[in-house]
Structure formats: structure tokens, C-alpha cells
Design a protein that fits this description.
Creatine Kinase, Chain A, domain 2; Ubiquitin-like (UB roll); binds 2-acetamido-2-deoxy-beta-D-glucopyranose; 358 residues; eight-stranded mixed beta sheet; five-stranded mixed beta sheet; single chain; 27% helix; 2 domains; globular; 13 strands
Length: 358
């Protein structure tokens, strides 16, 4: 047994350290019709690549639900480059936008619209911070470590828990944290969450369109690393019905004006604007969110808009220290864990600063 394992590790190490002869592997990553990441690899010369110099590529959109069978080519336009923590330097990760053959953005390309809004309102220097909650599942879709015919002890011991019986698969969380740093993602922390097998990582601060880019690549790495450890990742906002916490994507937001003295009036004016468009926001804040936003388990109810200082049951929370200082940022607690960060950050910008002329 051990002999085989050592032999296997030796073989793997040997191949992984082979000389690439002046070439690199570029992993092109995109988002499919169902909000999952997809990726494929190609060989490029080893040089300094930027989104502008990287080649456009394509894939069969009929196999990902992104195009009809006839005319199924979808184009991949590189938009961001990250170091590759899986294959290590000089190999790279390339995040790409999806475009149709007629030169228009693909139906599921939410980045394009978001980038226009960020660019148009860039003078306000929008900063975001997103908290990605998720659940690790075993191969039979049970939360990892849950008993096969029953439930673990009720919630209470698991949030920021330490020790066997409190948390599972910390190896994945640690590997993912380091991998994000290596890639150049602004990951700012991790912790175990309220429901057993539920975890969270935070990405931010990121300015403008970089928020969505960083979060999507962090999600890609979470799926990719969990694959190596034999775990599944669920972004479902209510993976287990009943008295178990759901999963969200709490979104911190501030502008240049909100971050300086007197900022509270800009925070309040933004919240008023959000209030007027609550239903439109909920519509793009993730699928199955009604199962999570029940007004219980530290959430607001889905059909009402509320806000307050230090209130975890509100749609929008102003952190206590922001209330005291009178400037800073606010937290939109409505988005579900499976929401698209481009849609969240995009509609916040559009609501606060207005839409962009074509
Ligand atoms: C968002 O704000 C909360 C406080 O309201 C803070 O604890 C958290 O670290 C912030 N998260 C990110 C990703 O910026
Ligand atoms: C990452 O965070 C730093 C501050 O910690 C900030 O200066 C930088 O702009 C952020 N990167 C992006 C791409 O937003």
C-alpha cells in the first residue's frame, strides 16, 4: 500500500517537473449558461501575456447550453490573467468573456454590461467586498461528514469551529486560500460557517470590474481544488431545508464619497435608491433565494426591504463602527451564494449612479 503510494507520488512529481521547452499552458476559464465555470487548456509561447495580447479562442457552445446546434461557435475573449496555482509558473489562468459569432456578447455574458457601468462611473471609485458562503458535499450529495441516516447535532458548535466533529475538509479551505493568494486574487479571509460542512471565504476590497473577475476565478479554484480532494461544492442558498442556515454572498459596497467624513449622507441616499428597486435586485440576486430569505436564520424576508445599523436581520446593514464614525460602507445582505457577482455589482452601480447610454 505505502510502496504503491510512494511510487505514485514519485511518478507524478517526475512528470510535473518536466521541462516545457519554452512553452506555457494557458487555462482559459469561462462561465456557462448555468453559472458554472468551464475551462480548457492551450499551449502558448512563454512570454509576458496580457488580455490585449492573448489570442481569442472558441468552444462548442451547444455543449454548454450557450448556443444552438447550428452556428455553435462561441468566442472566448481574454479579459484577465492570473498566476496558475495548480500547474505553477510560468503557466497561467486566463479569464475570458463569451461572445457570439455575430460580434455581440453571448446571452450569458453578464460581465460586458457590468464593465460598461464600472467604466462610466469610475470617478466614484467603487469598492466591493464579497463573502462567498458554500457547502462541501460528498459524492452522494450529502454535506460532508453528515451521518448517512440522520442529522448532526443542531447548529451552535460549528461557526468558526475548531476540532474533529466541528469542521470537515479544512485541507480544502487551506489549499484554496493559498492558491488564491498565489494567483493574485484579493482574498481577505476564510472561516467555518454556522451549518456543519459550510464554509466562507471573503474577496475584497476590489475596485470596479475586478470584483467579479476575482470572485469568479476564486470560485473556479474552489471547484478545481475540491475536485482533487474528492469533494463537491454546492453554491445552493439553502442546501438543507429546515433549521439549518442558508448560504449567501453578502456584498460590501462603498464609493470615494462614502469613505470620507460626511459619507453617511451618501450611504443613506444610495440605500434609498436601492429600496425603490428591491424586486429588480432580488430578480438578479440568485436562484432559489426565496428558500433562504425567510426573515429567520440571520436574514431579511424576501418581499420587504429593511435597513439598519448592525442589524443582521435587515436587507442592508450598516456596520456598527460605520454608524459611529459617520462614514465608510454598507453591506447588502440579500444576494444568494449562487448569484453572479457581475450582476450584483452591476445593478448596484446602475441603481446608485444611473444606466449607461448605448
Ligand atoms: C464586509 O463587511 C463586514 C462588516 O460589515 C466585514 O466583517 C467583512 O470582513 C467585510 N467583507 C469583505 C469581503 O469586505
Ligand atoms: C486589492 O486590494 C488592494 C488593497 O488591499 C487594492 O489596492 C487593490 O486595488 C485591489 N485589487 C483590485 C484588482 O481591485
Amino acid at each position: 500500500m505505502y510502496r504503491q503510494l510512494i511510487l505514485f507520488l514519485y511518478q507524478l512529481a517526475k512528470y510535473m517537473s518536466l521541462d516545457q521547452k519554452g512553452n506555457i499552458m494557458a487555462e482559459y476559464i469561462w462561465i456557462d449558461a448555468h453559472g458554472a465555470t468551464r475551462s480548457k487548456s492551450r499551449t502558448l509561447k512563454d512570454q509576458k501575456w496580457t488580455p490585449e495580447t492573448l489570442p481569442t479562442w472558441n468552444f462548442d457552445g451547444s455543449s454548454t447550453g450557450q448556443a444552438p446546434g447550428e452556428n455553435s461557435d462561441v468566442y472566448l475573449k481574454p479579459v484577465a490573467v492570473f498566476a496558475d496555482p495548480i500547474r505553477l509558473a510560468p503557466n497561467i489562468l486566463v479569464l475570458a468573456e463569451c461572445w457570439d459569432h455575430d460580434g455581440t456578447p453571448n446571452k450569458f455574458n453578464y460581465r460586458h454590461e457590468c464593465a460598461k457601468l464600472m467604466e462610466a462611473h469610475a470617478v466614484h471609485e467603487p469598492w466591493f467586498g464579497l463573502e462567498q458562503e458554500f457547502t462541501l458535499l460528498d459524492l452522494s450529495d450529502r454535506p460532508y461528514g453528515w451521518p448517512v441516516n440522520g442529522f448532526p447535532a443542531p447548529q451552535g458548535e460549528y461557526y468558526c469551529g475548531v476540532g474533529t466533529g466541528k469542521v470537515v475538509q479544512r485541507d480544502i479551505i487551506e489549499a484554496h486560500y493559498k492558491a488564491c493568494m498565489y494567483a493574485g486574487i484579493n482574498i481577505s479571509g476564510t472561516n467555518a460557517e454556522v451549518m456543519p460542512a459550510q464554509w466562507e471565504f471573503q474577496v475584497g476590497p476590489c475596485e470596479g470590474i475586478a470584483m467579479g473577475d476575482h470572485l469568479w476565478v476564486a470560485r473556479f479554484l474552489l471547484y478545481r481544488i475540491s475536485e482533487e480532494f474528492g469533494a463537491k461544492v454546492s453554491l445552493h442558498p439553502k442546501p438543507i431545508p429546515g433549521d439549518w442556515n442558508g448560504a449567501g454572498l453578502h456584498s460590501n459596497f462603498s464609493t470615494k464619497e462614502m469613505r470620507v467624513e460626511g459619507g453617511m449622507k451618501h450611504i443613506e441616499s444610495a440605500i434609498k435608491k436601492l429600496e425603490g428597486r428591491h424586486q429588480e435586485h432580488i430578480a438578479v440576486y440568485g436562484e432559489d433565494n426565496e428558500k433562504r430569505l425567510t426573515g429567520r436564520h440571520e436574514t431579511g424576508a424576501i418581499d420587504t426591504f429593511t435597513w439598519g445599523v448592525a442589524n443582521r436581520g435587515a436587507s442592508i446593514r450598516i456596520p456598527r463602527e460605520v454608524g459611529v464614525k459617520g462614514y465608510g460602507y454598507f453591506e447588502d445582505r440579500r444576494p444568494a451564494s449562487n448569484a453572479d457577482p457581475y450582476r450584483i455589482t452591476g445593478i448596484i452601480m446602475e441603481t446608485v449612479f444611473g444606466s449607461v447610454e448605448e
